[in-house]
Amino acid sequence: MQGADPDVVEVRALPAPEWDALVQLHPPTEQQAEDGWGWNLATFRPALLAACVVSPDDEGDPLTEAEWAQLLLKMPVGDRELLYRTAVDVNENRWPGADVGKGSG
Asked: Is residue 93 within 8 Å of residue 81, measured between CB atoms?
């Protein structure tokens, strides 16, 4: 909605063993592996967000994997991909405190 305040979320990096375990829990399909994916995007995306997105200002419990799966279906594609890529980048590249997305900077 134009003019609305952007939603703010905090994405935290998982400890390396937790990241590795999460990836192992969501192996790619044969086709995804052939395409170069290291995990099953359909199952990994909501699991990753459930593990990495922190509730802002302790506003209740973080969303569950099932709640993320439902929310991702309703999100604009660009927002969904930005959030997902941010969570992956924070874990794979370990870059500190970047502001990304709508309304940042």
From this structure: no
Domain boundaries, the chain: 11-93
What values do phi and psi take at 70, rounded to 5? -70, -45
Mean pLDDT (10-residue bins), the chain, 105 residues: 67 94 97 95 96 77 92 94 94 65 50
Residue 67: exposed, middle, or buried by beta-carbon count in 10 A (0-12, 13-18, 19+)?
A: middle
Q: Which residues pair with 54 in a beta bridge?
A: 10
58: region left, alpha or beta (phi > 0 left; psi from -120 to 50 alpha): left
